[in-house]
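Form 12-C: Joint structure prediction
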Amino acid sequence: MKFKVHSWELVTAVDGPGTRLDIFFQGCPLRCQFCHNPDTWLASGGKEIDTSEVIEKTKRYKHIFDTTEGGITLTGGEVLMQADAAREILQSSKKLGVHTCLDTSGAGSDKLDTDFIKLLDLVLLDIKGATPEIASNITRTNNYNHGIFFQMDSFARKLLKAKVELRFRYVLLPKIPDEQLFEIKTYVTKLENEFNTKIPIDILPFHQMGTTKYENLNLPYVLKDLPTPSKDEILHAKKILNNV
Ligand code: SF4
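Section 2 - Result
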């Protein structure tokens, strides 16, 4: 099946355990203020390849995945905008005995069936904020913004019910009020109690590495003058979100 990719790369200890084959899907409807990959936004961009090319790569790197306890990670962009292609890749990976990971905002997850969910070993789920208002503000103007919190929440619940390993990912901006961090902690703790499991929250400190991409694409970058969070702010957020 043909689908659109932005790129792919082999990474270690970033998007899931061990060495991973990261496939960056092209296209994302969200336009997050802090996105450092605006070049993945347009569904018309990227390049068209066949899912069989990815499956061949997965076969080629299987010995590395086996040695490092790694696997394949579908990321983007928003993978679920091309869920049929993702399904094919995940199905083949599972057949090969390769660990599968999905990195997603949850946009489009309402259309997934339980068979798709069974193909996932690990999901890295963005949490833009613990309220619909904050999540909408981060993801800005598009058809998905009003529902993104609810899609994320409903997808998290489906995954937990199916006992899929789940980690939340939170992009930490500087000077975030403690109140917002406590809201996230309270939201995740509630889910943990409801499903009797631990759900780690990975903190991704905001950075300016996407600036040149916005310039090259001639797109406005609303956070271009925002500093990165300080070490103290990161530690403080970790204390609240991870109790460390
Ligand atoms: S969901 Fe991810 S890829 Fe899409 S705009 Fe937000 S940060 Fe960028």
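Section 3 - Comments
Residues 2-242 form a domain with the TIM Barrel fold (CATH 3.20.20.70). The two ends are 45 Å apart (CA to CA).
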